[in-house]
Amino acid sequence: MILVIGCGYVGNTVANSLSNVIKIDPKYYDNKIENFMYDGAVICLPTPTVDGMCDDSLIEETIDRLGDTRILIKSTVLPNLLDKYGDNVVYSPEFLREAHARKDYSNSEYVIWGGLKKEAEWWMKTFRCTHTKTNIIMDKKSASTIKYVYNCWLATKVAFFHELYSKLDKTYNYHMITNTLADFENIGPSHMKVKELGYDGNCFPKDMEAFANFLDSELLKSVIKVNESLVSSR
Q1: What pLDDT was estimated at residue 51?
Q2: Using CA of residue 196, residue 199, residue 203, residue 209, what is the dihedral sign?
Q3: pLDDT for position 28
Q4: Considering the entire predicted model, what is its pTM?
């Protein structure tokens, strides 16, 4: 039996991919960790940005409650916070859009596993993805960095193209420009459409802020300022 702790869109999507699972989330269920015998636990709890950095306090508290059992973290956690987690913990980030979580999960090309090889392989077998996905095993810090770079790169792309859209006057055909650029292999079609200016949502703003401060990145901090200006102009 596997516990899935935290049942937002990530937790629910992960839980639905498992056959023998118990969902733990006080917002939706009365189930408690202490009431079950289990083989492993998947943590999908929120990690908000507090004072400019990732707050993993809920993760820490949950790991303490779980003890030495096998633990898989799906929550977004900064690389420098992962050293304190034991060898029984594997970090495996998800790359899901809230509105398309199930589709993104099913169609994902890669699964990243950060941790000891034997622990990662146990989880690979549990999720039955040893033959259906490209699995990459690495250290926890590298796995976390991939997650943050992915989100920050896409947020930067949104800010860039949305600023472009806002600066071009009506004599430019933005649709034609972006459709053409989308065919360039090193640019691609994603994150160029403009419904409303700037990025927002549950992930991009908090991850951009946390990673920009973690790296002390002037580039990312500049993107955040551009995005704030775009959002305020809506």
Answers
A1: 94
A2: negative
A3: 87
A4: 0.93
pLDDT at 208: 97
Question: Cβ neighbours of residue 142 under 8 Å, at least 6 residues apart?
Answer: 79, 114
- Name which of 141, 145, 16 is nearest 89 in CA terms: 141
CA 151 to chain centre: 7
Amino acid at the residue 135 = N
pLDDT at position 227 is 98
Q: Which amino acid is at 209?
A: E
Strands 53-54 and 49-50: antiparallel
Residue stretches of the chain with pLDDT short of 70? 129-132
Contact between 226 and 163 under an 8 Å Cβ cutoff? The reply is: yes
User: Which two tokens mark 54?
Assistant: 């990732």
For 109-171, the DSSP string reads SEEEEES-HHHHHHHHHHTT-TTTSEEEEE-HHHHHHHHHHHHHHHHHHHHHHHHHHHHS-TT
Q: What's at 163, amino acid-wise?
A: E
pLDDT in the model for residue 174: 97
